[in-house]
Amino acid sequence: xxxxxxxxxxxxxxxxxxxxxxxxxxxxxxxxxxxxxxxxxxxxxxxxxxxxxxxxxxxxxxxxxxxxxxxxxxxxxxxxxxxxxxxxxxxxxxxxxxxxxxxxxxxxxxxxxxxxxxxxxxxxxxxxxxxxxxxxxxxxxxxxxxxxxxxxxxxxxxxxxxxxxxxxxxxxxxxxxxxxxxxxxxxxxxxxxxxxxxxxxxxxxxxxxxxxxxxxxxxxxxxxxxxxxxxxxxxxxxxxxxxxxxxxxxxxxxxxxxxxxxxxxxxxxxxxxxxxxxxxxxxxxxxxxxxxxxxxxxxxxxxxxxxxxx
Length: 310
Ligand SMILES: [Ca+2]
Prior knowledge:
Blueprint: E1 24-28, E2 35-39, E3 61-70, E4 77-81, E5 84-89, E6 92-97, E7 102-106, H1 112-115, E8 119-128, E9 131-138, E10 146-152, E11 158-164, E12 173-175, E13 180-183, E14 189-196, E15 204-215, E16 218-224, E17 227-232, E18 238-243, E19 249-254, E20 267-276, E21 279-286, E22 293-301
Antiparallel strand pairs: 1-2, 3-22, 4-5, 5-6, 6-7, 8-9, 9-10, 10-11, 12-13, 13-14, 14-15, 16-17, 17-18, 18-19, 20-21, 21-22
The structure holds calcium ion (CA).
Calcium ion (CA) binds next to strand 4, strand 8, strand 16 and strand 20.
């Protein structure tokens, strides 16, 4: 969860590039005086799906600011770093520049001690300084034993790991200010586990934040702006905001890419929350046929005046 400077220029949204699949479009006139952001129906906020939610649930919105196709191998996690991005798939890590041009890949980054324990899955990842943090899973969820591992940002080599007493670990986010780490015990859950993360290898469960609703099939999470932002692989590929002060949880919209057929339905994956050219949320969607993946950027608007999150 890198922090980037906040300078909102709608024209800058065009930096995210043209959309390859027709799901979003950003354009500006020759003088940059006017900017048009067209939102495809499949990634607009689904008001029908929100009809049964409290009114406050519709007050926050996430509006697409661009879709970028990326490597099919980027299929689990995403994290913004200085000068680029880091992605994960189940068994590897990748670092790109800001244009998503791959700079380095590490296809087998887990230590033997973990693979011998059947850890085979890297989930959504996060960045903290020169370190990449990743939630890891082994497949026997009943063991109540998953793990966090940390990697050097430049080399993507593992620096250490710690077993965690939780059943699943599809995502993990770190907040360097208070040195806290966030994750969930289950893919579908109504609570967030919060670890004291001051000392690598000695994380201690600090508290549990109870949400005011259950969120299904959470695949990514990132902390920024006093909130936890969740991406899911539920039926609507829902995007959610969790207020860290009390657990109020609202649906913002959707990651999109709901148009697949049969076994080719795309899967909602990880998320990064970094203010970047006016867009706060950046999500990763994978595609089962392994033809491509997508990074989608979203501008978040707050209740009331609908201004973007400051
Ligand atoms: Ca992430």
